[in-house]
Amino acid sequence: MRILVVEDDASLRRYVRGALEDSGFNIDEAACLDDAIGHVEGVPYDAVVLDLGLPDGDGLSLIETIRRVRGGLPILVLTARDSIKDRVRGLDRGADDYLVKPFATEELVARLRALLRRPGHVLGAVLTAGNVTLDTVARNAAVAGSPLTLSRHEMATLEQLMRRQGRLVPKDILFDNVYGADALPETNTIPVHVHHLRRQLAALRATIEIETHRGLGYLLAVPKETR
Amino acid sequence: MFDRNSLVTRLGWRLGIVLSIGTLLQMAWLFAHYRGAETAFANAGFLCELLHFFQDVAWTTPLIGVATFIACAAGMRKHLQPLRQLSEQAARTAPENGHKALCIDHAPSEVQPLVASVNTGFERLVEAVEVQRRFTANAAHELRTPAAVVQAGLERLSSSDDVLVLRGETERMGRIIGQLLSLARLEALDGMARGKLDAARIVRRAAEPLADLASAAHVRLAFEVEQEPVQVLATEEAITEIARNLVENAIGHAPADSEVTIGLSRCGLLSIADHGPGIPKDHRNHLFERFWRGSWTSHPGSGLGLAIVAEACQRIGATVECLSTPGDGARFDVQFATDA
Hints:
The structure holds two protein chains of two kinds. Chain A is 40% helix and 25% strand. Chain A is of the alpha/beta class. Chain A folds into two domains: 2-116, Rossmann fold (3-Layer(aba) Sandwich); 126-226, Orthogonal Bundle (Arc Repressor Mutant, subunit A), CATH 1.10.10.10. A five-stranded parallel sheet of chain A has the order 2-1-3-6-7, sandwiched between helices. Chain A has a four-stranded antiparallel sheet with strand order 8-9-10-11, with helices on one face. Chain A has a three-stranded antiparallel sheet with strand order 12-14-13. In chain A, helix 6 packs across helix 8. In chain B, the strands form two sheets. A five-stranded mixed sheet of chain B has the order 2-4-5-7-6. In chain B, strands 1-3 form a two-stranded antiparallel ribbon. Chain B has helices at 7-36, 45-57, 60-92, 112-156, 161-187, 199-207, 211-216, 236-253, 305-316; strands at 195-198, 219-225, 231-234, 258-264, 269-273, 319-324, 330-335. The longest helix of chain B is centred in the middle third of the chain and has 45 residues, at 112-156. Chain B is an alpha+beta fold. Chain A binds chain B through residues 9, 11-12, 15-16, 18-19, 78, 80-84, 100-106, 166-168, 170, 211-217, 219, 221, and chain B through 141, 144-145, 147-153, 155-156, 170-171, 173-174, 177-178, 181, 185, 204, 207-209, 211-212, 214-215, 220-225, 236-237, 240, 259, 262.
């Protein structure tokens, strides 16, 4: 997996590079806007980590360039600006996720993996969380090799939770992704699916756990050492 | 030549009128009496007449005195009214409310220089507060990248006990930087900019990203909303800061395997409750002070979260209250404004 890190602070760039390389990514570095544009145009990156405050211009303009050159390339923005206005502006311009400085590199890696786990990206085909794997193409899931027998909706629910593992999946977003945006709310049987999933996962000693946050949504918790 | 606004001119006019009327009445009496007495006291002479005059007229003097006093008092009262209005206006002014100059037009001219000086002084004060706020914001902003370098660097070191301590403190520093910026932004927030918003949507969006924090602390969040939408008068930023900081605070104090509930009633009352140790009564007055941390808790907070909540509430005209039974958790109630 090849990642471009665009950051003008040399020390931060070095540490981020080290942390990402330890997690198995290949890293290219760019220190300014010009350099970054050259890289993006020449290399088929899997994702870009982008600092917004660059010496030769605003990183937001780079997002637009990237969207023009490589439509679906995941962009994770690093920034010192964190007001709601800044956040909305960044996401409106096409950033996929937002991390405010200072950040834990562990969080950076987790967010980057989450972006790469989206459909159509490097980690998007076979999802793993703890000892659970889910093949989104063959539509099967297994715990440490033993297959789970899941209905279509249960599979879809588990897939959504695994794509965003460690973070809350809001219940409305989960519903839209499992049933489609046009489905009637009455058809919502996600709590039942989650109940089934929990029972099967527990029976096969899965290391992941599905948490319910009432009124908000579900979160797939992965123990740290197995993430 | 005559300054109509002067207190002296105004009182002078009134005193003059009262005294002139008094004198006219006395003159009239003298004239009438002198003509009537002409025959009876023809030989008594002018000195005798003068004596009679004082004997018969002297009784009016206290009356004239009282009349003068009443006129003066009423005049003073009336003409000092603008001063009283100015005082009220001045009492309402505070640097954080933004500066409205005291109205100088109706002030008596004797106090106009004073009002002008107060206005100038206040402008300087507001400027100083603004400079300080901007300094805080800039300092916090500039600290973000170095803090990120330190944090990322420490994470690259193998974890010895020392490194673990440093990591914890660096994380705390990062949180404080973020909260200082939040405070500075809220201080710049114009309370007049508030509009009708759906609190349910904003509180939910603020709580969702905190689920991973709750999960790491083995705490569950629960959002209970009576109806949707819940219309309140606020700004999105203020609601977000209030909800985020109260929920973070609750997660920090909640014991493992407990629930933090976020309740929102149809009349705009946001209640955030945990099942932690609660807050002793004598600590509750200090809760919302900046950098104040309770000695009864080991929670490694920055002491800024609740100060942010208080600031945000003040900005949008909401009230915040802490209810707690020690040993049975703490609950924070925020009542949003719902009508203009």
